[in-house]
Amino acid sequence: MNKIYSAKKVSFLLGIQNTTVRKYSQLLEKSGYHIHKNDLGHRGFFDKDVIVLRKIIELTKHPNMSLEDAINVVVSMDSGMDMSKHDTKRYMRTIKGYLKSSRTLKNNNWNLIKNCYNSPKNVMNIWQQS
Q1: Over 18-52, what HEC string results?
Q2: Which helix (H) or strand (E) covers residue 106, if one does?
Q3: What is d(CA 125, CA 65) in angstroms, rounded to the nearest whole number?
Q4: N- to C-terminal Cα distance for the chain?
Q5: Whole-prediction pTM value?
Q6: Of 37, 56, 67, 105, whose CB has the highest number of CB atoms within 10 Å?
Q7: Any idea of the CA torsion for 60, 44, 11, 8, to the nearest 10 degrees?
Q8: What is residue 125's three-state secondary structure?
């Protein structure tokens, strides 16, 4: 039988505030992750959920990793599998790929803006062609 932890116990295990556990849980639920609730609506956390929360904490320690991005990575990698089988290296490879794609898009957008600003005539030509 799986042990169920209270939010207070999870906050103690992870060394974070109870309010942080609640905030992360709400964001996880909004992203489609299921957290057990009893008849009174109180959350109960299984070992798997504690591991997910720990991964979020680890990921948010990295530069350029927002809480929302960390939650999206964890939820996308969960997909019904046991999170304990995923190591941090795999997460980091995934995150580096997301960050590289994001930087590439930002650079491309910046170059487009610069080109448009530097040559309004080009903007009119592009607009007329579309």
Answers
A1: HHHHHHHHHHHHHCCCCCEECCCCCEEECHHHHHH
A2: helix 88-118
A3: 39
A4: 62
A5: 0.62
A6: 56
A7: 160
A8: helix
Between CA 42 and CA 130 the distance in angstroms is 55
List Cβ neighbours of 83 (8 Å cut-off, separation of 6 or more). 48, 51, 52, 55, 74, 77
For residue 103, what are its two tokens? 């930087």
Other CB atoms within a 10 A radius of the CB of residue 49 amount to 23
Tens of pLDDT along 86-129? Answer: 555 666 666 677 677 767 777 777 777 776 666 666 656 665 66
Q: What is the pLDDT of residues 31-83, one digit of tens each?
A: 889 999 999 999 999 999 999 999 999 999 988 888 998 898 888 877 655 44
Task: Tell how far CA 94 is from the center of its chain.
Answer: 11
58-89 burial, b at 16+ Cβ within 10 Å, e below that, comes to ebeeeeebeeebbbebbbeebeeeebeebeee
CA 22 to chain centre: 16
